[in-house]
Model the fold of this input.
Amino acid sequence: NPDQPAGQRVARDSVMINGQSLQSARDYRVTVNNYLADGGDNLPILRVLSDVTLRMIEGQLLEIEGNGDLDIGEEDHIDIIRRKTADLFSACLRIGAMLAGVGERKEEALARYGLNLGICFQMVKPVASDLREGKLTLPVIFLLRRGGRKAMDLVQAVLSDRGFSRVSREEMLATAREHGVLDECRALAEGYAELARQELSAF
Done:
């Protein structure tokens, strides 16, 4: 209903998505249990796929629950991107290592490489990316922490309008630069990139 208040539409959509995601999780669990019952030599790989898919669903649900939450912190955000993206990177590299038979030490190193690379990948999103959908990226979280009332008003305007009608992307970017948000995000991302590079020493 286009005449329904925006807050009610967001709440309604979140409930619908949550219900769909939970049903998908249940359906997936049943399917995986059937595969695991007759997995044979592929059982370890199926377990990795099962675990990572459930973590991705958990991450999606946590993100939906946190939509528009201006109090979300850095640790909570990293936990979400780890579940949604980094764990998938990690699982893909782990499965490659398992298929190649490189041994447990190198398998664990590749899994950690993928995890840190995945976190780094999600940290370098643009400042206003996904904000109109209610998703707070790390730059926005840092901006809220550093930018005071002005930053809070800017973010709230975009969330309320579900777009950039009152606040431009350029204004958001300028405010982020003013408070050193981009440098802070870049430094944190580079830290995870370095952790990923260090894991390659196993080879």
